[in-house]
Amino acid sequence: MIYVVVQFACIIYLIMNTQLNGFSPLIYLLITLSVIIGSVAVVNMQLSNLNIVPTLKDKHQLITNGIYAHIRHPMYSSVLLFCLALTLTNAHLTAQLTMLILLIDLILKSNLEEKLLTKRFDKYQNYKKNTARFLPFL
After folding, report:
1. How far apart (Å, rounded) are the C-alpha atoms in residues 123 and 12?
2. Handedness of CA 116, 131, 46, 28 (dihedral sign)
3. Which residues contact 105 (CB under 8 A, 6 or more apart)?
4. Can you give the pLDDT at residue 60?
5. In the prediction, which pLDDT does 138 show?
6. 135 lies in a domain?
7. Would you state the pLDDT for residue 1?
């Protein structure tokens, strides 16, 4: 649960401290990519799998098609791209540190989720070897 609290605290901080006059084409591109990746992930993921806390539901299914064929955690990718865009509008060190904390938090949260998925699904290890965590080709 602490991962979720940290995640939302970082997101709220970055939203509240966004400098609207700092929007550039790059910021709009990052936000657009974030919305597209997040939307596609929600469509590909079955709503019965949707969960903000790093636990598996009783009837959780492993989704490996659509965007999940390329990225294991596209929802986190979406959050990171969105928050990166917000961070780039704000030159304050606090915003940059908040972004770093968010990145570390999502890495730790995804590690926990991956341990749970590995225990539940025999084919997860193979899936993990063939897909990127947050960004394809990395």
Report:
1. 36
2. positive
3. 3, 6, 7, 10
4. 82
5. 62
6. no
7. 85
Q: Give how many domains the chain has, as a whole number.
A: 1
The helix-helix angle for 2-16 and 74-88 (nearest 10°) equals: 30
Q: Does residue 31 lie within any of the structural domains?
A: yes
C-beta of residue 85 within 8 angstroms of C-beta of residue 63: no
Structural domain contains residue 26: yes
Contact between 69 and 131 under an 8 Å Cβ cutoff? The reply is yes
User: Quick check: is 53 in a domain?
Assistant: no
Give pLDDT, residue 116.
92
Question: Under DSSP, is residue 19 helix (H, G, I), strand (E, B) or coil?
Answer: coil
Q: What's at 108, amino acid-wise?
A: L
- H/E segment holding residue 11: helix 2-16
Containing structural domain, residue 93: 2-48+61-129
How far is residue 26's CA from residue 56's CA, in Å, rounded to a whole number?
Answer: 36
C-alpha neighbours within 13 Å on the C-beta side of residue 91: 2
Split the chain (138 residues) into runs of 10 and give each run's mean pLDDT: 94 94 92 96 82 77 91 96 96 95 97 94 93 84
